[in-house]
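Changelog-adjacent note: as of this version, every example in the card shows the full chain rather than a window. The one below runs 442 residues end to end.
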Amino acid sequence: MKVAIIGTGYVGLVTGVGLASVGHSVTCLDMRESVVESLTAGIPPIFEQGLEELLAQLLESGSISFSLPDVDRLAEADIIMIAVGTPSRDGDIDLSQIRSAAELAGRAVAAADHPIAVVVKSTVVPGTTKGLVLDTIAASGADRESFGIGMNPEFLREGSALVDFNSPDRIVIGFEDDLARDRLRELYADFSCPKLEVNTQTAELTKYANNLYLALQISAANEIANVAARVGGIDPLDVVEGVLSDHRWSGGDGVAGAHPIAKYLIPGPGFGGSCFPKDVEAFREFGLTLELPMQMSSAILEVNGAQPGFSLDSMTEGLPPLDGKRVLVLGLSFKPQTDDVRETPALGMIRALRAAGATTLAHDPLAMDAYARIDGGEVEFVVDWRATVATVDAVLVVTPWADYRGIGDLLSGDQVLLDPRRSVDPAGLAAGVVYRSIGVKK
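Full-length structure tokens:
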């Protein structure tokens, strides 16, 4: 199929590369000339494992191309996908980019000599696709029979997005007409996963519900871990194992770690990234417009917002004050295998360290430049983190990059290792090294 994608951010680019890799002809459009030039040269503006190599192959084969907004190129497509950003503005979802993309799609539909399905990939609140998007396209003068309207939410995890695209758990096909449904069926015909066919409002809410459930579980696990740490003598992961051994969680085999949700329930400094924070916030604000109390969503955001500072307080309780100490922070992105620092817990933890009087040094394999743009405080970035370990009083591992797992070999004497995400095995630490995680002391 001929697919045109408006937007080359994380979702748009990964979707475009993924669809091109399974045989579709893909054109991705972006209004930023520098981004189009970079992508045409095979240089993606984001980091994702395997993306640059696959992009080079697809460019060479002619399966994918990049362009500035072009109505004529859009009008050649069988499907136009809208994959632009929907950021939060004081909690409310900002649909300005959706509106602009729908206007562009509308002009293409009106100019086309064949029916086109317009499908929203962006995360939008229920009613946006059949309301704002459909109305905006119709305002272009296109006959309603000449275009389809659909919603196809993404469930990509940064760091494993290409794998998630090629091996999805499920595909949600939201549609308002037969044209959109049939085009989406054809688009994903070669994917063998379960496919849910629903209306667009259901598809929109499914995306929010997915993130809300995960955010809820992470926040609940962190709150339980905080209680365990305050009581003392309780390993929160033992509690999680006891919970997940219930067949209703574990799927019946009674092994906690075998269930995929287990990795989300490891205590930590809170969730971050481009999806959970803004989507929970947007979902809450949307519910408030419906005059609902939205207490659960509010509680999730409250627990998560306090978690970076609380986790630091929990780990340092009983230790000498941090005032005047040098602390090396390892990991600035919100998770490994990405340079994304949106809503990263590292920001809250570094601010808490500075508030306690510590001098902060920091390292991340990919995200130091991005972090420097969001933190107006004084952070000394280090390139050789291994050599720096010997010069500090404490090390805080915020993001569990694989490179940091060997840090135990570098620590000695009375140094302190703060490890909120359990990325290091304390059993391998040298004598004298003080180890702290949430609810765990050595």
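Structural remarks: The two ends are 58 Å apart (CA to CA).
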